[in-house]
Amino acid sequence: MMRQHCYSFSAALLRMIRILSGIARHPLNRHRPFAAIGRFVAWQLGTRLLGAPVAMPFIGSTRLLVRRGMVGATGNVYYGLQEFEDMAFVVHALRQGDVFVDVGANVGSYTVLAAGVSGARCIALEPVPSTFDSLLDNVRLNDLTARVECHNVAAGSAAGTLTFTADLDTCNHAALDGEPSDNTLQVPVTTLDSVLQAARPTLIKIDVEGFETKVIEGAEHTLQSPGLLGVLMELNGSGARYGFDETRLHERMLSFGFEAAAYDPARRELTRRQVAGKREGNILYIRRWSEIETRLKTAARVQVRDSSL
């Protein structure tokens, strides 16, 4: 029993060291690592004492309503911008009047960035009702209801319903038949083409835990829209749980005229990226490359904690 206790303590200590190291080395924190670690400690202590959601400063004048256990949102508390390159790209690429589509919006981090910082109009889809409520809370908190249209639905290849997990935070997903889960629910499904109709998206973010192939199947018209400049999509191997080949999905995106890219926010530079078809993580697909480059170079700087972006 003592040996098991020591092992558990060692594992927890190593995990804490990794978290603190990641916070200190993050691009937005590395110039003031101790201040960033101090925020982490204050967050851990404060939320345990309060036991309630806290409105935390985000980027510019925006805020996020965050509670303990919100993995994606608390990452923004720790790091400033959890997905640094991708979130910076959204802020730099969008302009007032553009349309940003957030598929798998979760509690709305990307939606708040696009609408609250860049001034874009947003269409956000989030299927899990409790998470959708948190999305609405963050839209209201930032006074963005006139700019953000929220849909409590999943995106797929056709209208219908899906069984979804409901207690896995950012990892909620369409459940497979027989998949063990303590908490599932039925959610409505529609296609992106149906939701957007006459809307002309500028950027689309798709983060649906492996269901991206079905989302793209239901977005044929949308992906051919001449105003669509880019798609940010997660390809981390999760599609295998549904039998999807993400290499074929990548090839499908190329067939729409997109190129895979990587973004360096410090230099505001795009570079072409090779995709090997394995666990790639988030992939940025770009069309009309020179127009995007101009947008990135000319975007106004915004404040993120102790840094500007």
Characterise this structure:
This protein has 309 residues and is of the alpha/beta class. The chain has one domain: Rossmann fold (3-Layer(aba) Sandwich), CATH 3.40.50. Helix content is 38%, strand content 22%. The protein contains eleven helices and 15 strands. The strands form four sheets. Strands 5-4-3-9-10-13-11-12 form an eight-stranded mixed β-sheet, sandwiched between helices. A three-stranded mixed β-sheet has the order 6-8-7. Helix 5 links the parallel strand 3 and strand 4. Helix 1 crosses helix 2. It is globular. The termini are far apart.
Question: What is this entry, summarized?
Answer:
38% of the residues lie in helices and 22% in strands. The chain is an alpha/beta fold and 309 residues long. The protein has a single domain (83-308), classed as Vaccinia Virus protein VP39 (Rossmann fold, 3-Layer(aba) Sandwich), CATH 3.40.50.150.
Features:
11 helices, three-stranded mixed sheet, globular, alpha/beta, eight-stranded mixed sheet
